[in-house]
Design brief:
The protein is α/β, with parallel strands linked by helices. The protein has a single domain (about 5-270), classed as Rossmann fold (3-Layer(aba) Sandwich), CATH 3.40.50. It is about 35% helix and about 20% strand. The protein has 9 helices and 8 strands. It has helices spanning about 5-15, 85-95, 110-115, 125-145, 160-170, 190-200, 200-205, 220-235, 255-270, and strands at about 30-40, 45-50, 65-70, 100, 155-160, 180-185, 210-215, 245-250. The radius of gyration is 17 Å and the shape is globular. The chain starts with a helix and ends in a 5-residue tail after the last helix.
Length: about 270
């Protein structure tokens, strides 16, 4: 991908930062928020929580999905370019899934979500962000809600840089995140993510599952890089069925596509929940 194409893609990513203050809230009654100190990032994070309707009357332990870019998941009034409609989707499907949305760090978003620096765009602070999720956020969530904390029922996901981060997080901690939703991953950001995949031990990752989606109208390299990663990853897993991968012919790099594919992704997450 040319530098110009990279810049265009990053500009689309940075549009996530904007807030449409004129729109009415579309978040459902099953969505709430709380704030949490993130000492690893020297900031305060706002956390969005979706609880399924059944949570009110059930005492069972629920699987949990950790999603990046919470501003764009539930509410059109906090997203400049539309939302994923996570709450509406889960309400309509009546799925027993808790979703934890982590708000991005605005101007720090690239730094938080990229595991390796890019010569032009810098970044590379994902380890601290991941440390926040593992050692601050997840323990808090598990203490507040009826969660199933085993890896088979703990998921992570995101789009664009969030997709890159979610893939990285699963490779680094396959014992924590059993499944990953990897939408439109920014694998172009650094070759190091391919090296990490090549070098990971088979025994570390064999039971994990990955859901890859990318649009054919995003960029010239988006889909090819996704399939290149799939080939590297396949040799590390117990079965080819652990990778669910597809390109979307008319898919573009935006919330419209990610909202369209989220229902199938959510059903896939819960297919073998224990």
């Amino acid at each position: 991908m040319t530098q110009h194409k990279h810049l265009v893609l990053l500009l689309l990513v940075f549009l996530f930062i904007g807030i449409n203050t004129n729109a009415q809230s579309t978040a459902s009654k099953n969505v709430s928020t709380f704030t949490l100190a993130a000492p690893q990032l020297d900031t305060i994070k706002q956390i969005w929580v979706y609880l399924p309707e059944s949570y009110k009357t059930s005492q069972k332990e629920y699987p949990v999905l950790y999603l990046q870019d919470a501003q764009n998941l539930f509410d059109v009034s906090t997203s400049y370019v539309g939302e994923w409609r996570v709450d509406e989707t889960l309400d309509s499907l009546n799925l027993d899934l808790i979703v934890i949305g982590i708000e991005h760090g605005n101007e720090k978003r690239t730094d938080e979500l990229t595991p390796y620096p890019n010569p032009e765009y810098n970044g590379g602070n994902a380890n601290n962000y991941l440390d926040f999720i593992l050692n601050t956020l997840k323990p808090k969530v598990d203490s507040l809600y009826n969660t199933s904390s085993i890896a088979e029922n703990t998921f992570i996901g995101g789009s664009s840089l969030g997709g890159l981060f979610s893939y990285y997080a699963t490779l680094k901690h396959p014992d924590v995140f059993g499944k990953a939703l990897v939408f439109s991953p920014s694998f172009w950001y650094s070759e190091d993510i391919f090296e990490l995949t090549k070098n990971i031990e088979v025994t570390e990752l064999s039971d994990n599952h990955f859901y890859f989606r990318a649009g054919e109208k995003e960029s010239k390299t988006m889909v090819p890089l996704m399939y290149e990663m799939k080939e590297l990853l396949s040799s590390k897993l117990n079965s080819a069925e652990h990778i669910n991968i597809q390109s979307i012919p008319e898919g573009e790099h935006n919330e419209t596509m990610w909202a369209t594919i989220f229902p199938d992704a959510a059903l896939w997450l819960l297919k073998d929940v224990k």
